[in-house]
Amino acid sequence: MKIILKTIVLTVLLTLCGCHSVGKELIEVPVTKEEITSSGEINLKKGETISFWTKINSGTPYPEYTIKYLIEENKKTIEFDSISRFTYEKNHIINATATSEDITEKNFEEKDTIIHRENFEFELENKKFTAPKDGKYTFAFKLTKYEPESQSSFSSGVSIILRK
Amino acid sequence: MKIIKIIYLLVLPLSILSCKRYNLEENQGNNELIAQATKINKQEAQKILNSKVNLTSFSEPGKFNISIPDNYISAVTVYEQGNIDLKFGKIDFETRKDVISIDLTSALLPRERLCSQSVYIVQEENPNLISIAEIKKQIVKENHIYFEDSNSIIYGENFTVIHYAYDSNSKSYIIYNGEVDHFAKFPEKENLALHMLKNGKNLLKKDFKKNPFNSWEEYVLNTPQAEIYLFKSIFNKLDKEMKAFLDINQSVSPRSEGNYDYVTFYRTNDEMDFTYLNFLNAVKTNTLENFTIPEKISSDFDNIFFSSRYSLSNKYSFTQIDNLTDLKITDSGYNNRVFEKLICNVQYEGKSFYLVTNEVSDLTRDFYIKMFNYYSKNKTLDIPALKK
């Protein structure tokens, strides 16, 4: 009984710590090369901190990317800059999964060939922003570099998760 | 043991609460797209039905003579007996010979499918075969009716519009049948439905004269809000590009909801601006042989301003309207076909941009000129008085 209770307490404490360390997800904004995407308005009080987590779904564990971002408060520019894989000193990665599979496909000579596919998904803490005053903030993003090029034409496989 | 229990009871609600404290306002744009008012106000309707439109005659001798908006594209189909299954009042199309169908589309957005609009012409001696009461019985069933008068009705979840008239000159029924697209996302679908009804009611109008639109404001007040909304959604995407994102020599062509592009927005540097002004001056003074494009910028310059068809053997002419150049290129390598582009300079905080479109025809030119020049001056398509 004691062991069970201890386990529960430990789990809850861990959950609590986990929650505090990454913050609560506010919104996930897909990021593309074609268009600027935006979080919509987020109410923030002075001193509140938002962290940008770059969520990657890629065939390689080390894709190179640059995402430009614009933070506005009441349509006034607060900050315009960019983030990339190594712009943030912390290397804080969460929700990482790696999968691989072998797929049999016919090549142009109609012979079966085995293709080995790997997929890496993870979220990397990329930036922190602290609101300088109370207000309605919008966070806009555009992907300006991504290597290797995404396989899918519908999605870049990159998004930004805003956490508070 | 007790202490552990207390800690457990304290920690659990804390862990739940700590995850919930955030305040996010949803993007309100999407919430407005829910079907709105259940009944169309007659006064509001009248305002739209009387709104300004320039009409043009569209006819085939001995077959039909109707009036349609002068910025509309039309396509005629003649259905043989049994090939069209529609019924209005006592007129059953399936039993009729040669039903003429004319599909109407706004030339501003020919591919977007905001709505479908068809006009049917059925030869008939008897002028008493259709009534709204009969149409209601046949078609409407349990559908909601938004609007009706003696020969029109707007009903159902897709804002179906029916208007009919009997043309005693040609001894035929003219039936207008339109529908707002079920999947298109835009607010105020009833506004579009009323503009469609206006098209139906104008079909037999004969005494009209052209009365040009004088400003972008006038276009906004007299064009279906769905069409203006579509252009605004594209131009809104330029706002942040202009403020921050777009680098020199970069361009964007934002996509509409239906995934089409209409406008390219390009950021230039001083050399590009200077070269462009030199080009216009060379055309004006007929000294194009002395004009050269610097090697460094030639590829982008040719691409943006000339759709990659710059050549000294082509002929060029232009008209300047405020900040906009209406450029015509007569392409010698293309059987002297004339290509037209609208190019409008936008200055923002010391940065220079160009709005460019190839979507130019006699049907769309004036709308784009007014829209581009308004954006160039105001950096928005919103009209202050109309802002909610």
General description of the model:
The complex is a heterodimer of chains A (164) and B (388). Chain A is mostly beta strands and 164 residues long. Chain A has a single domain (24-163), classed as Jelly Rolls, CATH 2.60.120. Helices cover 13% and strands 56% of the residues of chain A. Chain A has one helix at 2-22; strands spanning 25-30, 37-38, 42-44, 49-58, 64-73, 76-84, 93-106, 112-130, 135-147, 158-163. Chain A has a five-stranded antiparallel sheet, with no helix packed on it. In chain A, strands 2, 3, 5, 6 and 9 form a five-stranded antiparallel sheet that branches. The radius of gyration of chain A is 20 Å and the shape is elongated. The model of chain A is unreliable at 10-20 (pLDDT under 50). With 388 residues, chain B is of the alpha+beta class. Chain B has two domains: 30-201, no CATH class; 216-383, no CATH class. In chain B, 30% of the residues lie in helices and 28% in strands. Chain B has ten helices and 17 strands. In chain B, the strands form four sheets. Chain B has a seven-stranded antiparallel sheet, with helices on both faces. Chain B has a six-stranded antiparallel sheet with strand order 12-13-17-16-15-14, with helices on both faces. In chain B, strands 1-2 form a two-stranded antiparallel ribbon. The longest helix of chain B has 21 residues, at 225-245. The termini of chain B are far apart. Residues 10-37 of chain B have low confidence and may be disordered.
Descriptors:
heterodimer, A: 164 residues, mainly beta, Jelly Rolls, 5-stranded antiparallel beta sheet, 1 helix, elongated, B: alpha+beta, 2 domains, 7-stranded antiparallel beta sheet, 30% helix
